[in-house]
Amino acid sequence: MATNLYDLLEVNQSASQEAIAAGYKRLQAKFVDPAAQGDEDATNHLIALREAHSTLSDPDRRRRYDERLVQRQAEPLATSAQPGGFTRLIVVAAIIGVCGVGYAKYQSDQEKARLERERVVAEAKQAEIQAKREQEEMLAAQQAEQRRLREEAIERANRANDLAYANQVSRNVYHQETLARQQEERQRVSAEREQNYDAARQLAREKAYLRQLESENARNRRY
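The structure assignment produced for this chain is given below.
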């Protein structure tokens, strides 16, 4: 059982400030979770640890505490060295006075401890709420990122479909233009063939007519 602040932080009276801080952090981590879950003993322990660290981490407060600690350790020896009943009367009077002052201080300390417990519990709940809020924000961010990725994938697919459709239309247009050119070429060749055929027939008629004229002229010369 801890009899002083050093025992409470599990360090010796000659401990350095670093050792005191390390002891406080180690013990605080041990009691934070139970205090957040409503464990009253853990909450009281956290309060005591905080008070011990606050006192021992301040050089002036630590020096005064060490002086009081030395006096308290020396009081039993001084009391046992005094003789007789007068000493007992002094001791009884001192005890009564200390009890009166101690009771008032006890009530004050109890009220401070209650307020401190409420504050520690509130801080623990606030930390839990903050952690939950951060987790919800992280989840919302992940969901937003997933939506963004889905929308980008849909947009890429739409662009690919549009491009494929445009390419198909281009191929269809090219095919139709090719067919039209081929049709025009066939019509041109057919027209040229028809013209050549007509020219050949006209030439044949003209030749036949010339041969007829030559034949008639030959008959006329014989007569």
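Interim note for the steering committee: Residues 84-222 form the longest helix (139 residues). Confidence is low (pLDDT under 50) at residues 83-104.
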